[in-house]
Amino acid sequence: MAEVIVNRVAQNATDAIIQNQSVLSSIQEMSYWKIFFTFISVVLVWDQVSYQIKKGSIAGPRFKFYPIIGPFLESLDPKFEEYKAKWDSGELSCVSIFHKFVVIASTRDLSRKILQAPKYVKPCVVDVAIKILRPSNWVFLDGKAHTDYRRSLNGLFTKAALAKYLPSQEKIMDKYIEKFVEFSKETDYEPRVFFHEMREILCALSLGSFCGDWITEDQVRGIADDYYLVTAALELVNFPIILPFTKTWYGKRTADAAMKIFENCAQMSKDYIAKGGEPKCVMDAWCKLMHDAKYKNDEDSRLFHREFSNKEISEAIFTFLFASQDASSSLACWLFQIVADRPDVLQKIREEQLAVRNNDMNTELTIDLIEKMEYTSMVVKETLRYRPPVLMVPYVVKNNFPVTPSYTAPKGAMLISTLYPSLHDPEVYDDPEEFIPERWVEGSKANDNKKNWLVFGCGPHVCLGQTYVLITFAALLGKFALHTEFEHKVTPLSEKIKVFATIFPKDDLFMSFKKRDPITGEVTE
Ligand code: HEM
């Protein structure tokens, strides 16, 4: 019996060897081309099968039309209309680009669910963002580490803290009123592209608020001029190594230079606060919290019982600039365009601005003053709803996430919350495609419905700068309405949406500014 078994085993082993040899010899007989094409076929089939498995029952192309790359080429030049079509295709839809599987949630409730699910998701950043912002940066923290760090930053953006930054901001606004008028004078007040000027004023305002007098005008101008290189570097797919003279190289170089400047500012701010100085900018406020925490032991102060290094502060300040620059520039472009196109709205803003100042142009900006600007603030809010700068927020799935009872987003997928659809929801906003500031009056349907207000996201990563934005823009719009007469040249592309990280008027905003007497309304050329 044992002999039979041994023979059988021996026979099987011989068969296996013969089989292996025949596989090997058939592989050896295959030409390299055959091996290559077999490999490609396996990869292509796997690409489609994996897509089908991940897609499940949700909306999306039946197959990957362009194998492997998917709609990669379209993603390089994103179109608002294509995004909209995607959102309209289903509450959950998908695309697959290279190995990245992307699920898009288009309803308010699903978007909120994703933003509020830190157990399953964390913010998704393109690989190059980690290189540009540096891996040590606080924005890449997750879970409790993020919540704790975030608590230490919240104090820099409370109304009480923001009040301290207003004098610096007002000086910058005054300067740019003059600059915009001078710039318009160059073309004899013929409207010209103002896209870059809007980006510059926002960069100057942000840096003024973050670094106060510690940053010089030349440094601000340098960062404002070069910052677009950072935005341009953040393409969805990039070469894994930063090669000299590529977009990512320029982006990183710009970011490093800015962070070096912020590091020096942080030291000056520390020295100033150590000598008993009062905070005038975000850095000062941060150093003051650290300084005061030495003598306190409450829960909030304990967050500052360690020295935040200049490097750490500079990296955080860069994230504030990074988070604010594109979104705020987008808001500025739409705000000026929309208001210039609606003289009745501009008229009401001017009346309110005079009234809150009791016609006294020496009145300085304060939080109290801005809080009285109810109509102006409604215009800012309606602009944010009508043209929300951030259309979508990408997250990455950490653990398989049952987004609906019938669909589980797979680990590793990108899960996108859309903000635009809930801000144009006709159930909450009557005539959502109309610009109606009055919809925000106290007690109105729009104002009472907080769930649809997703302009700044929600959940643990909700925008740190949201109060700052509402305050700064009410102040900015008010001052420009009083001191300048602005004109917008409407072109066929003015109302069309260009997507460049955030959204902008497709014609890049043709405007002109003239000096105006705030009391008499007289315009001077
Ligand atoms: C119109 C202007 C702005 C818009 C529309 C906007 C919108 C957003 C959105 C949608 C998010 C993601 C929220 C989420 O994931 O739930 C975000 C995050 C963030 N924003 Fe803003 N933002 C604006 C301006 C600013 C400014 C001026 C700052 C300056 C401090 C800022 C700082 C941040 C930071 C630090 C985060 C990340 C927060 C975290 O991960 O904890 N943003 N913003």
TrEMBL record:
EC code(s) of this entry: 1.14.19.41
Binding site for heme: C463
EC class name: oxidoreductase
Family statement: Belongs to the cytochrome P450 family.
GO MF assignments: C-22 sterol desaturase (NADPH) activity; heme binding; iron ion binding; monooxygenase activity
Gene Ontology biological process: ergosterol biosynthetic process
Keyword Metal-binding: yes
Alphabetical list of PROSITE patterns matching this protein: CYTOCHROME_P450
Tagged with keyword Oxidoreductase: yes
Cofactor(s) named in the record: heme
Pathway in which the depicted protein is active: Steroid metabolism; ergosterol biosynthesis; ergosterol from zymosterol: step 4/5
Source domain of life: Eukaryota
Name of the protein in its database record: C-22 sterol desaturase ERG5
Keyword line: Heme, Iron, Metal-binding, Monooxygenase, Oxidoreductase
